Amino acid sequence: MSDEPAETWPFLEALFISPARGLPMQRVSSILAVTGRGLKGDRYALGTGYYSGRYDCEITLIDGEVLDRISQEDGIPIRRGEHRRNLVTRGLALRSLVGQRLRIGDVLLEYHRPRPPCDYLQRLTVPGMTKSLGRGAGIGMRILEGGQLHEGMEIEVISMPANCLRSLP
């Protein structure tokens, strides 16, 4: 837990990007989220990610609490971006965000899909990474409105308007 007052939770704990497939993740304190693309300078916004062209990978989120558990229980190094996700959140149950939007400052994100770990991730990191992350690997989101993201920003959960949902035939 942090010494932050409860009203500042949930918040953006860390930001990571990688300029190309296979390169280590780099922690940044601030980054521009670009509508419909991703994070400026990140492999997926640049179209150089492992899954570029195969999946929508604008931005990925992972629970800081999941990273704590992986580090403590499994002894897997995870704090320098080895998880290969863009945003580390704190105080937010990501699995509960299906059908939701998030507001982080000017940035509006919309839930896209779960982001399970893959064998490629483990090839880049350490044995056991895929299994450990499989218990809470994170989610993918689309960037509906871009803007600047900074570590420590508050995250607001916004329910999607009912008129956004299509009725099934």
UniProtKB/TrEMBL annotation:
Domain MOSC: 26-158
InterPro entries attached to this UniProt entry: MoCF_Sase_C, MOSC_domain, Pyrv_Knase-like_insert_dom_sf
Domain of life: Bacteria
SUPFAM superfamilies: PK beta-barrel domain-like
Pfam families according to UniProt: MOSC
Name of this chain's protein: MOSC domain-containing protein
Taxonomic source organism: Prosthecobacter algae
